[in-house]
């Protein structure tokens, strides 16, 4: 289609091969580019006949008896001075609805043509409006001015001309109404007052006994609107309509490499009905349409005047992810992966490939005081076309309802493709207090940053949200998540964390028994308390309520690993990665699950993939080291653990692996020196006993290994939970003392 567009808009419908290659394949070598050009010509000729494109030397000529274009008709009408015919045939922005991936030069050409053609169309409209005013056709002039006002609703000059034309037609009330609309748009979009002349005309119209001012006598912007009636600059050909006159894509909006560009007004694409029919037939023969069963919500853009509402736009995006995750049959990419593209100018096709989704939701938020303007679009990643879009103007207090509306609208747009899927948890829930909701979003924004400072601030915001609305279940759940994260990160002792997690999660579930994240918080707490049965029960309940939440599968996999169900743990971690494919942590922990399942080769492969996502992730090197150790590749294991330590020096987990590779290669003194280093750390820091035990198990020094494993059990530190499955402890399993340790941990031997 790009080739067809270039030929159809070239002077005389002819272009040299070099010109076509320069626009379509500038980065290819000459031989490859000419081959691609020949293939494209072959496709066109096969669809529309051998005579469609004729080669005359190095030039290619398009047969205008086969392909007609609306711009060709427009250009002919302009040349004849027939502005009515010219403006009638123009269908919208040039090639809006057509996008050629990885073709920057073609996109630049399209952008230039689009801008030029748009200017010329507007000039033609203005010339037509003034021509009608000149012959006293005020009603006709009003119609044309309305078209111009729709194209540029923010232009005070056009608003004035339309108002005066309406006044001349005896429609003063309509003129005043348009002034109100124009004033509102200018204020909301730019935060400024309308042009003084607009205000003056409004005041004059409202004053009693005022005389109508003739239309077309207002001020003019420099260099615009000064052409003679009936004349306008020539316009290049715009291919749009087939011989039958049927447009190919009259309502699609142009895909862009800039994801955040707003939806266009109308779309006109290169269209040849016969070609379109051939293309559709070929696609049907090739394969049935792929259902749009997967989606990602990209971070909404903050277009607020102060640009300080990132917490709000991020929160809106995250809430939308949570709502869409409850649509049966719809796979939703998790927040971590979707937010990888925050602030990046990525193509929708690239995003779709990396996230493994067929549709995207993107949008923007403009928050000004207590007013919101939210724009959302649903986009097909295969071709960049918009499947649905909408703009919401509302008070802040209605934002909760709008989130539900957006989720329901997107679900409705996709449901026909979901083979009968239905929305299960899109039912309305009571909206929280608006101020409480705003505080909750601030808390979630800070919780997601996971720094000591941000977690403490998150606690404060969740507590403030609860103070504003004591019935807000999500705020209690956020509080529970923060307390448990503070414990996981070693920033809060269990004695302080546990009662707060339990109280907050329980209160959340009293207020909303269907709140999946609160069940997850409680399951996580039970995991820390070694209540394996209760933990699994709560994880299962959370997954039943919200099967699209990646972190739930992640933590559930850890619980399954603990009790020895390593196959199920791998499956749960694969599901977590499927939902959150760009999360380095989830990808690394999939490797850990494979390690626990003793699938060492796949564990190593998985960590290689993880390092492609985040090359300096020490955890990935450490897990690779453990798998290599178990394969007997001790030298390679040492190299990997040394890489981990280079990125995070003195980490006791990594030091334990280093001690083990020293011991396994007979360097006992070096091994004991590293173990002593960990012991020294353990005297000042709780939770390191297990790592000391790992070192002694490799020497082997069984007595000390069991001594330190016992200390680890006394402390109930996190790593001892994997006593049942950890391959590094295999040398101790035959000892009766090991069964005693498992019994103390509540794990069946």
State the gist of this model.
The chain is an alpha/beta fold.
Provide a descriptive summary of the structure in words.
The strands form two sheets. Strands 4, 5, 6, 7, 8 and 9 form a six-stranded mixed sheet that branches. The protein has a three-stranded antiparallel sheet with strand order 1-3-2. It is built from 32 helices and nine strands. Mean pLDDT is 77; it is low at 208-291 and 417-428. Helix 16 (434-447) packs parallel to helix 18 (473-488), helix 20 (516-528) packs antiparallel against helix 21 (532-545) and helix 22 (550-562) packs antiparallel against helix 23 (566-579). Among the domains are: 93-271, Serine Threonine Protein Phosphatase 5, Tetratricopeptide repeat, CATH 1.25.40; 294-431, Rossmann fold (3-Layer(aba) Sandwich). It has 749 residues and is an alpha/beta fold.
């Amino acid at each position: 289609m790009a080739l067809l567009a270039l030929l159809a808009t070239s002077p005389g419908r002819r272009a040299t091969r070099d010109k076509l290659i320069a626009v379509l394949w500038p980065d290819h070598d000459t031989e490859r580019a000419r081959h691609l050009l020949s293939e494209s010509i072959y496709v066109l000729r096969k669809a529309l006949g051998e005579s469609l494109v004729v080669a005359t030397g190095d030039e290619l000529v398009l047969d205008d008896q086969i392909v007609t274009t609306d711009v060709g008709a427009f250009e002919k009408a302009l040349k004849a001075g027939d502005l009515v015919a010219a403006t009638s045939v123009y269908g919208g922005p040039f090639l809006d609805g057509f996008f050629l991936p990885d073709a920057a030069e073609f996109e630049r050409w399209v952008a230039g043509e689009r801008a030029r053609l748009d200017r010329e169309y507007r000039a033609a409209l203005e010339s037509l409006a003034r021509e009608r005013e000149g012959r006293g056709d005020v009603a006709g002039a009003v119609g044309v001015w309305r078209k111009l006002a729709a194209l540029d609703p923010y232009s005070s000059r056009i608003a004035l001309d339309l108002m005066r034309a309406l006044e001349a037609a005896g429609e003063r009330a309509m003129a005043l109404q348009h002034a109100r609309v124009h004033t509102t748009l200018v204020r909301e979009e730019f935060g400024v007052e309308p042009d003084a002349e607009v205000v003056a005309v409004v005041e004059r119209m409202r004053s009693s006994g005022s005389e109508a001012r003739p239309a077309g006598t207002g001020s003019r912007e420099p260099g615009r609107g000064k052409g003679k009636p009936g004349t306008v600059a020539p316009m290049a050909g715009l291919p749009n309509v087939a011989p039958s006159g049927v447009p190919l894509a009259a309502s699609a909006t142009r895909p862009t490499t800039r994801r955040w560009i707003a939806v266009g007004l109308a779309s006109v694409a290169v269209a040849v009905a016969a070609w379109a029919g051939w293309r559709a037939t070929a696609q049907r023969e090739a394969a049935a349409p792929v259902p749009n069963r997967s989606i990602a919500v990209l971070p909404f853009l903050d277009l607020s005047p102060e640009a300080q509402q990132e917490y709000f736009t991020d929160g809106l995006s995250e809430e939308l992810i949570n709502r869409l995750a409850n649509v049966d049959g719809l796979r939703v990419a998790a927040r971590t992966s979707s937010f990888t593209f925050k602030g990046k100018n990525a193509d929708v096709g690239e995003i779709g490939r990396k996230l493994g989704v067929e549709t995207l939701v993107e949008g923007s938020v403009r928050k000004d005081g207590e007013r919101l303007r939210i724009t959302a679009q649903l986009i097909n990643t295969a071709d960049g076309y918009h499947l649905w879009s909408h703009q919401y103007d509302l008070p802040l207090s209605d934002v909760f309802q709008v989130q539900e509306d957006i989720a329901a609208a997107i679900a409705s747009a996709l449901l026909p493709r979901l083979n009968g899927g239905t929305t299960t948890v899109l039912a309305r829930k009571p909206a929280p207090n608006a101020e409480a909701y705003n505080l909750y979003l601030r808390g979630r924004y800070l919780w997601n940053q996971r720094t000591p400072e941000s977690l403490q601030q998150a606690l404060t915001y969740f507590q403030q949200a609860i103070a504003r609305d004591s019935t807000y279940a999500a705020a209690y759940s956020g509080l529970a998540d923060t307390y448990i994260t503070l414990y996981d990160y070693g920033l809060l002792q269990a004695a302080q964390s546990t009662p707060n997690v339990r109280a907050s999660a329980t209160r959340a579930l009293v207020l909303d028994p269907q709140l999946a994240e609160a069940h997850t918080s409680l399951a996580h707490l039970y995991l820390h308390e070694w209540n394996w049965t209760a933990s699994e029960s709560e994880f299962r309940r959370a997954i039943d309520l919200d099967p699209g939440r990646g972190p739930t599968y992640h933590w559930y996999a850890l619980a399954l690993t603990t009790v020895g169900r390593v196959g199920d743990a791998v499956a749960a971690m694969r599901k977590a990665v499927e939902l959150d494919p760009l999360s380095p942590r989830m990808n690394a922990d999939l490797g850990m699950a494979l390690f626990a399942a003793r699938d060492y080769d796949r564990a190593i492969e998985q960590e290689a993939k993880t390092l492609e996502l985040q090359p300096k992730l020490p955890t990935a090197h450490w897990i690779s080291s453990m798998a290599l150790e178990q394969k007997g590749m001790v030298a390679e294991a040492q190299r990997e653990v040394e890489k981990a330590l280079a990125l995070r020096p003195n980490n006791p987990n990594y030091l334990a692996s280093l001690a083990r590779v020293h011991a396994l290669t007979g360097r006992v003194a070096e091994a004991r020196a590293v173990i002593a280093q960990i012991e020294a750390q353990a005297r000042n820091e709780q939770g390191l006993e297990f790592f000391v035990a790992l070192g002694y198990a490799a020497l082997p020094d069984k007595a000390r290994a069991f001594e330190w494993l016992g200390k680890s059990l006394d402390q109930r530190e996190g790593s001892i939970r994997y006593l049942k499955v950890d391959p590094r402890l295999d040398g101790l399993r035959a000892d009766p003392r090991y069964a005693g340790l498992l019994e103390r941990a509540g794990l069946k031997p």
